[in-house]
Amino acid sequence: MINQQLPKHGQLRERDMKTKKILFILSILFIVLTLNIISSIGITPGRTTLNFEPNLHKEISFSIINSEHKDMSVVFMVTGDLSEVVTLGQTYAEFSSSEDSKSFTYTIDLPEKINTPGNHEIKIVALEMPKDIKEKGTFVGATISVATQLHVYVPYPNKYAEAEVNVIESEGKMLFFIPIVNRGKIGIEDAKAVIDIYTALNEKITTIETNVESINSLERKELVAEWDARVNPGKYFAAVTVIYDNEIINLEKEFRVGEMVLEIQEIVIKDFELGGIAKFDALVENKWSNDLIDVYLNVIVYNNEGEIMADFKSPDYDIPSLSKLEMTAYWDTAGVEKGTYEGKIILKYEEISSERNVQMRITENEIEIIGLTGRVIVQGKGTFNVNNILIILVVFLILVNIVWFAVVKKLLKRKK
Amino acid sequence: MEMADNMNNKLTKTERKVIIAEAVFVIGVFAYLFFATAPNQIFPLQGMVIVEPDFVFEIENGESILVSIDENFTNPIRLEEGDEVVLPPGEYFWKVIGGYRESEVKSFIIQSHVGLNIKERDENYELENSGNVDMNVTRENEFGISSMTINIGETEDVEKDNSSYEGRQI
After folding, report:
1. If you count residue pairs, one on A and one on B, with CB atoms under 8 Å apart, how many are there?
2. What is the pTM of this model?
3. ipTM strictly over 0.90?
4. CATH code for A262-370?
5. Alpha carbon distances (Å) from A350 to A111, A296, A382, B158
6. Contacts of A43 in chain B (CB under 8 A)
7. In this complex, which of A39, A175, A355 lies closest to B117 when CB atoms are compared?
8. Domain pair A161-257 / A262-370, same fold
């Protein structure tokens, strides 16, 4: 029985040849794939904040994110002006491709006293290395690392506030959220912010004010202002003056009004043949009130394993304000098989990029681009869901009852 | 009272039973519909910590959601289907609005996530901020140290060499 399953010598040679061919193709494929190596690492939280307490002993956790799901090693280091107070739980970790993330801890032992008030920053740096770095010992090439920061705040003897600005658009209104923290030992009686809004050409549009808050020592409050932004979509600038008990903090924030500055109206791929060069003609509308310079289209296609199969760009284009322009990008589809692939269509302009997830259905002579991902999903309601069936049943019951009592019973009575 | 009595007299025993069964059924249906058609949150779950740069609010029986930094929704952000918003790290409260009804209030936390990708392109490397906060990247090589800012979702082209890049939250 076992002998029957063994291959003959001829078959073995043929199989050897096939195996060699497969290995050769795989090695070529490997070389091609490694031309576009992706190194990636993530860490969360990006920052942990503590108020100084004498002799504080605390364990703090953080996680490393293996976003590209690959085998890798991570080396941990501590830097910063108070690095001696930190003890790492471990200095080296290994990740396999199946691991999304792993949690780690470090402990801090703060001294009795820190003389300098203000923020003392310690960084726990996670350096990504190849999986076999322990065996090889060395690595040549660009390296990337990410840091989780520990901010230890020693209170100032007086009033001292720190603030930042976040701008969020909601229903055509711009909401200015200004979190403010009192880092001093003395409470702040009145804190508010005055916001001057300017156009991209530095013309002042309006001035708005936030609510007024009192803030105890080491407390955090939120100052909020609302601006009814009846202006053209575009870039605007906020000069924020936070005023607290005769002290001032000046902040600046650039923000955008309007949803999408650039919008892809349609993408047409004409005269496509699988294996040839696909010409992506994208009609792009500039809804911005300013001309946009050096805009380009970037299309990324992923294979079924989620790896980048193609990454191609258009040349740079200048799009006049409030106008449409056709942008072209080319993709060599040699070696691409028929099927449906996930992809991204990215429009990049200045420092801003807008990204849309799409599906590309590729056939012998057509590429169909399907779908744009929204950020709020409302679950669809089918016509024949349970609720509708129940409503129909109730209405039917009522009708049957009406017919029974108003018609059938009368008829029966008359017959009697 | 008299009319009801007359009505009862007119109804047979079977009819009365059927009507009671129907009434129970209709009341049950209305009770079920009241709860089943209530605006509801699906994702993010209550108390969830989110570190991904992109996430989706999933809701049912509603047209929009309200997101706020406080439980009283003093300055809410209203989002409808297809809307996008960048929320800085922090705790948020949210509810679904469907017609005249609202869902319960749930909360989630956006935790800062520093993510750095490096891609090898034809003539250079591309650094990508894959986290959910703006990032400061320090580049170190034999020529010295320099730094750059990469905002959420953005990329920066750099020379192809053996530099070390360190990303941290701004």
Report:
1. 188
2. 0.68
3. no
4. 2.60.40.10
5. 47, 10, 43, 16
6. 113-115
7. A39
8. yes
